[in-house]
Amino acid sequence: MVTIATWNINSVRLRLDQVERFLTEQQPDVLCLQEIKVAEHLFPHAAFERLGYTHRAVHGQKGYHGVATVSKLPLTELTRHDWQDNGEARHVGVEIGGAGKGLLLENVYIPAGGDEPDREINPKFGQKLDFLERMAFWADTVDRPSLIVGDFNVAPLEHDVWSHKALLKVVSHTPIEVEALDRFRNAHGWVDIGREYVAPEEKSYSWWSYRNKDWKASNRGRRLDHMWASPDLAKQARDHRVLLDCRDWERPSDHIPLITSFEL
Q1: How far is the C-alpha of 81 from the C-alpha of 108, rounded, in Å?
Q2: Residue 68 and residue 95: Cα distance in Å, rounded?
Q3: What is the mean predicted confidence (pLDDT) over 95-114?
Q4: Which of 145, 221, 229 has the alpha carbon at shortest distance from 185?
Q5: What 3-state class would DSSP assign to 182?
Q6: Is the pLDDT of residue 8 over 90?
Q7: Are 67 and 33 in contact (CB under 8 A)?
């Protein structure tokens, strides 16, 4: 059994104590972090080494974005795709286990896309759509069991947001973004692990804005974080959890972690 977690930590150095608590309590084999906001040479390697996560692939940059995959299991870094075509650190791909026969694990931080869902007046939105389109071209070439995880910054289903009607014109839930994400999903037949365990008719969120003083009371969330598996790998999933309690920790990330266990 291999357990893999994903978490947009919103600054790994600022919330290192929370990462350490999470790893100590949950003990996943692998943790994929997004929005680490630190260059690789300043990444807190010693803390992860101390906790037993002795294998790491870090693609970072100063102050913004960045992804890191830390593991108790041996890994080999394979790729750093620039799907935004601007040099930002938003992806790292690794192989867990033996070379040529292990699990391919892709850790991605898709751009938020700005405030206006119109590429003509908001270039960031256009970059997000182009990012998703490049991911779809890549997915069409995937020929091994793979898992792609991270902050997709898209809540595709009606019950992935607190109000489908209210958010139809809000970036992260617009039809054009959902269609772009669907093209990516269909390019490889990815299976949305989260919705295999929580029915699409049920509300499910992974992000709540800091603007909500009482996130539980308002519960105006969105499911922006995802774990999608190749069809054969999806059949090996045995458990999936969303860790809501982490949103109540002191100075929390606005995202919560997800964990899936696979019988490989």
Answers
A1: 9
A2: 14
A3: 88
A4: 229
A5: helix
A6: yes
A7: yes
